[in-house]
Amino acid sequence: MKTNETLLSGIGNNIRSLRKARKFSQVEMAKKVGVSISQYRRLEGGEANVSVSILVNIASFLEVSLDLLVHGESISTENDTIELKEPELIEKMKELEALTGEDKKLAHKVLDLLIAKKQLNDIVAHIHK
């Protein structure tokens, strides 16, 4: 079982990662969530207890689940955060992060192509409804 300090630190790290992925400043987050900037900074630093209502406000503003804020296991993207349920995908995403240079660019292109294919298939399926 996690200690309170470990849990608070993990929640703070998760919130920070989600905030940065969405390119919000700490000041913006504090205002949207309804806390002072100093309280928000302590929250991200894992130094302050956080109420459930504040966690709900944060999750709502970031458009994620409370489970994601508390437990993590997500992949942050520029516009969204998704929860991965397949351990193999989590490991593959970690491996992709380690790629450099041309390999990373190629991986991005392959993923873009797969996503475009899925979107095209969805459009075709919608047209044929």
TrEMBL record:
Q: Which domain of life is it from?
A: Bacteria
State whether keyword DNA-binding applies: yes
Q: Which residues form the HTH cro/C1-type domain?
A: 15-69
The record, for CDD domains, names: HTH_XRE
Q: Which SMART domains match?
A: HTH_XRE
Single GO MF descriptor: DNA binding
**Which keywords annotate this record?**
DNA-binding
Gene Ontology CC annotation, any one: cytosol
Q: What is this protein called?
A: HTH cro/C1-type domain-containing protein
